[in-house]
Hints:
Helix content is about 10%, strand content about 25%. By secondary structure, it is mainly beta.
Amino acid sequence: MTRSVATLALVLLPVLLPGQTTHPPASADATVAQAKTQQSNQPLSAILMQDVDARRVKIGDPVKVRTYSGLTLAGGTRIAPGAVMTGHFTQVSKLGKGSIESRLAMVFDQVQVSGGQFRAVHMGIAGLAAAPPPIEIENDSEIGASSASPFPGARSTGINVDPSNQRSTGATTGGTGGTRVTRGLPGQTNGSQIDGRNGPQINLPGDHIGAMASVGSTVPGISLSPSPADRSVLVSTSNNIELRAGTPLVLLPIADTQQ
């Protein structure tokens, strides 16, 4: 009997010691889920599928982009490049009496997966670059990194953006504050390969050439709101914001407060 009591006391001793706390080991499932969540927070490259003008769009109007980099959702679902992501405008304002800036924000909340099904996302713009030139002048050898392009891309209305006036080892589509936004060499759009600087090359349908934006990149006349709560808001103090179809964007998950 005495031996049994002594054994029981030894078993209970760690529990009864003051100030001692036990921590169960982290489960393998929790570790995997955390890794998947981190993967889903990687920047996503996409192109705008429609023209956008802050003077004409309204809050709630739909907007679409086509991705050209892969995406892994928090649940582990892999979204292949070329998927269509849909969203809506959450902020729209134009320059005028009583307004000193034009603002534009969009939230993307659905992505179409194989089979036509949709999965929920919550992403906003974290960077943009100028749209590539029209296909009819793409093969003009005189247009290069050192020549002025007569074709404005993502811009503020009335500003002719010349995003290619920065010399570098490759062609550029824009960027401010030292941020390079690169573009692949001009080529045929249908069936062409996207420049694989951030991953494997892929084929994309539609009117597009190799181009991409980077996190924090902008074009002349348009900036990203400096407020962390509004990081996906585009702002212009000079003219009304206008984005052309084909404008490269980079998207990131945003706070749930941005609806």
